[in-house]
Design a protein that fits this description.
118 residues, mainly alpha, 4 helices, 7% strand, 2 domains
C-alpha cells in the first residue's frame, strides 16, 4: 500500500434497513440530534437526510403508516410445561406495553387509544 492510499477512509453506503434502524434508534433514544450524531459518528446533515427519506418513504401510499420491526422470541417453558404467550409492544418513544396470556382485548384497545392521544 502506498502513502497516498494509506489511512484514507472509504465511505460505505448504508442499506435501507440500516438507515431505518438508525432513525428508529434516534427517535427512541431521547437524545438530542447533536448528542446522538456524536455517539454514532454521523453528521447532523446525514441524520436529517435519513429522517426526511424515511418520512417520504413512509408516506407513499400508506397514509402516514409505516412498517414496524417485529421480533418473535421463544419463551421458556413455565410451570406445568405451559409456554407463556404474552405480547410486548415497544413504541418509538420508548413506551412499552406488555399483556399476558388471556388479556382482555377491549381493555387493551382503550389503553392504546389513550397512549396514541398522549
Amino acid at each position: 500500500m502506498d502513502e497516498q492510499t494509506h489511512g484514507v477512509k472509504t465511505k460505505r453506503r448504508r442499506s435501507r434497513a440500516e438507515i431505518e434502524q438508525l432513525v428508529t434508534e434516534y427517535e427512541a433514544s431521547g437524545l438530542g440530534r447533536t448528542a446522538f450524531c456524536q455517539q454514532r459518528g454521523l453528521s447532523l446533515s446525514t441524520l436529517a437526510r435519513y429522517r426526511r427519506r424515511q418520512e417520504h418513504t413512509a408516506g407513499e401510499g400508506t397514509e402516514g403508516k409505516r412498517w414496524l420491526a417485529v421480533e418473535v422470541c421463544g419463551a421458556p417453558a413455565g410451570a406445568g410445561g405451559d409456554r407463556a404467550s404474552g405480547l410486548a409492544v415497544v413504541m418509538a418513544s420508548g413506551r412499552r406495553i406488555e399483556v399476558a396470556r388471556g388479556f382482555d382485548g377491549d381493555t387493551l384497545k382503550r389503553l392504546l387509544a389513550v397512549v396514541e392521544r398522549g
